[in-house]
Specification:
Helix content is 54%, strand content 14%. It is built from eleven helices and six strands. The strands form three sheets. A two-stranded antiparallel ribbon has the order 1-2. It has a two-stranded antiparallel sheet with strand order 3-4.
Length: 235
């Protein structure tokens, strides 16, 4: 996996504007892993995808992930941080194929392709069932999905692929309310890519206005040299 340059960030942002976060994640991984096709990345289990996203984030922006949420009880702002190194463990290793068997039904691990197929479903419970149906590799027997069956399958899939979803246990320092929050690593990384791209465009505009250089010439400058030129322009 390679780190992304400012030119990469600009191209990603331009191509990915308006895309769903699922597609933005695959676009970013495709830029960092150019030897892999987008189709193959779409078939990675979600845990492997998220581990790779964490590794990409670490290479481009550092290991420390900082963010905040509002307490659902009192609206207090709660800041937290995570270690991308911990999330990225095993990110470069292709896991052995894993399946889960529940009540004689065999299930494979969900992928980005599976999420994309159900993301438009407005009913969360129905979306969950549709996802399980896609991942079920056993012949259809016509039996209805009970709530207990669905919960058991989801629990076993989560155990088999723990990085598929990152759940944060949070406690409000103001009112002591405790709750869980899901970290959408794909959206988090894309927000940073977008911020870097916009910041780069501002730098290009500043230096182009001052020196008449083209975007290509400015992006060819090393980070330290460009920073010095910006300091001189802004002095």
């Amino acid at each position: 996996m390679r780190a992304l340059s400012n030119s990469d960030f600009l191209q990603l942002w331009e191509r990915g504007c308006g895309m769903h976060p699922i597609d933005q994640a695959l676009l970013a991984l495709g830029a960092a892993l150019p030897h892999l096709s987008r189709a193959s990345l779409a078939d990675w289990p979600l845990g492997r995808r998220n581990a790779a996203l964490a590794e990409l984030r670490r290479r481009c922006f550092g290991a420390e992930l900082r963010s905040w949420v509002a307490c659902p009880q009192c609206d207090e702002r709660l800041e937290f941080q995570l270690d991308a190194d911990a999330l990225a463990k095993d990110g470069g290793e292709e896991p052995a194929p894993r399946t889960v068997i529940v009540r004689e039904r065999k299930f494979r691990l969900p992928t980005s392709r599976d999420l994309a197929a159900v993301v438009a479903e407005p009913d969360a419970d129905r979306a969950s069932v549709r996802l399980l149906e896609r991942c079920c590799e056993s012949p259809a027997d016509g039996a209805a999905w009970s709530e207990a069956d669905a919960e058991e399958v989801e629990e076993q899939l989560a155990l088999a692929d723990p990085l598929a979803e990152t759940r944060l246990a949070l406690r409000c320092s103001a009112c002591s309310h405790e709750w869980e929050e899901s970290l959408d690593l794909a959206s988090y990384l894309w927000s940073e890519i977008e911020a870097r791209a916009r910041r780069t465009l501002i730098d290009v505009h500043t230096l182009a206005s001052a020196y008449g250089w083209s975007e290509e010439q400015i992006l060819a400058l090393s980070e330290p040299r460009r920073a010095v030129y910006l300091e001189m322009v802004q002095a």
